[in-house]
Specification:
Elements lengths: L1 E4 L1 H12 L6 E7 L2 E8 L14 H12 L4 E8 L9 H6 L6 E6 L2 E11 L2 E11 L1
Parallel strand pairs: 1-3, 1-7, 4-5
Antiparallel strand pairs: 2-3, 2-4, 5-6, 6-7
This protein binds zinc ion.
Length: 133
């Protein structure tokens, strides 16, 4: 599995993450294998410096738009301010193994993951190759 994203969209995501000391989050939109756009969402977590929770209204609106012929919701992105671009134990506890993409930004880089199964009550993530073009 490989996923493509443009250099300019990746730069946009990295600068959004760099500009905020809280975790930023939003949706990845496009078509299978291609991230064409993002939809930034409010982080409505109680402690947004350490956790993220996508505004459910943004999620609902994006799925509604997808059903009406809009871009597919491929997954979401979020940042780990001061952390690594890898799923945290909280991420693993919250993830559903539904094949959606997780783009995680940390330390000035972004890595792509997919939750593919459950191990010991937590989601198991696999890295996904990201082609930045
Ligand atoms: Zn996380």
């Amino acid at each position: 599995m490989r996923v493509h994203i443009s250099r300019s969209l990746m730069d946009q995501i990295l600068s959004l993450a760099a500009a905020d000391h809280r975790e930023i989050c939003g949706l990845l939109l496009g078509s299978p294998g291609w991230i064409h756009d993002i939809c930034p969402a409010a982080n409505v977590a109680a402690d947004p410096a350490r956790h993220f929770e996508l505004d459910p209204r943004t999620l609902l609106a994006a799925h509604k738009s997808a059903r009406a012929g809009g871009p597919t919701v491929l997954g979401h992105y979020h940042s780990h301010p001061g952390g690594r671009p890898e799923p945290s134990s909280t991420d693993a506890a919250c993830a559903a193994p539904d094949g959606s993409l997780w783009l995680i930004i940390g330390g000035g880089e972004a890595r792509l993951w997919v939750a593919t199964g459950i191990e010991g009550g937590k989601a198991a993530f696999n890295g996904v190759a990201l082609d930045i073009m």
